[in-house]
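Let's practice the habit of predicting before peeking. Look at the sequence and jot down your guess about where helices and strands might fall. Then scroll down.
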Amino acid sequence: MISVPSADPVGALVPHTLQEPLPGANAGPLAGATFMVKDLFAIAGHKVSNGNPDFYAHSTPAHETAPVIRRLLEAGASCTGITICDEFFYSVLGTNAHYGAPVNTRSPKHVTGGSSCGSAAAVAASMCDFALGSDTGGSIRVPASFCGLYGLRPTFGRIDVTGATPMAPSYDTVGFLAREAELFRTIGHVLLEGSRVEADIKRLILAEDIFSRAEVSKDAALWELFSRIGRSLPQAERKIVAGDDIDDWCDAFRLIQGFEIQSTLLPFIQSHNVELGSGIKERFAMAAAISFAEAEAARALRAEIAKRLRGIAQPGTVIALPTTPTLPPERDIPDGASTAEFRTLTLQSTCLAGHAGLPQISIPAAEAAGCPVGLSFIGWPGGDEALLDLAVRLEPVLSRS
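Done guessing? Here is the structure:
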């Protein structure tokens, strides 16, 4: 019989987590598997906090369960918990001033990454088989990298976001995390909808400019990895993908995301005088100050970026890059001014797929300085399944490394 966890050894669960599991169907591709969900998904009869207790106090129980959860239940998986996220999802650090910072069992002195931090911590600690999260600016990919997990940000629109609290709707996606590639692929087949574009991976582009910004130990680990898995991949081509434009690309993401937040999360925060944690408070103040003209200029640039990236990511072509350019920060560093550089550097790796609506998978690829290192592949629109197949193909090679 499936039961909810009686203990939470890594601080992954919110205080209002499930008291009884949501049982999955008796049969299906995920029969017998368990999963947990980030604290932004609607579950009938339950409230969400979006990482903030004031929001939880003012929210009302959902009338319906999010379709993405229903699909998993119908496929046989049982939902056993609700996990902590960064406050209002506005961080990639994996800490929460109100609910704490889940423990990264793969590197306990370091953060999990966020904002799907509890989901990643729970999967890494084997509290469940897989977990749901969201990814707007890296919130699946970053914790996947830091916790040694598989994580997918899907092609924009291919996984239903209904019933998930919106942040920046033109970037928001639902993603998932798992420890094993085969299970990871099965989850994708259950959740992915819409147009699937099939093609064999014939071309591999190494984003040389993104690799060059990675920390030395991480960069060395990934290059060494490529020397060992080369036979499993096409001959790599080195290419400058963003170059000196990357800072402008990051600024465009921040401006568009912040401007969209003015219509999603900011109204509640302002009308209820919500007490925000350090770092989060400053980012919402920044978002509130973004003008329509700034957002429109950023959107025009985004259209150019998307055209450029989609021109590279044709069917059959994948772009390889470090999931994050840095190793995870240490746990005792507060989310504030000291982490601003970390966020800026991280966005240089994560903004590409978001701008263009492309799928990106992070696979647990190596280790550096005692921390997991994630390697990412960005695919073509609708090429999610090809990325899932690639993860399965590389898993035995990586397990021998």
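How did you do? The mean pLDDT is 94.
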